[in-house]
Amino acid sequence: MAATLNVLGLSVAAAMISPRVRVSTTTIPLPMTVAVNAAPWGSLRPGRTIRRVVLAAAAPDSLEDKVAESIKNAEETCSEDPVSGECVAAWDEVEELSAAASHARDKKKASSDPLENFCKDNPGDEECRTYDN
Question: Could you tell me which residue ranges the CP12 domain spans (predicted)?
Answer without folding.
Answer: 63-133
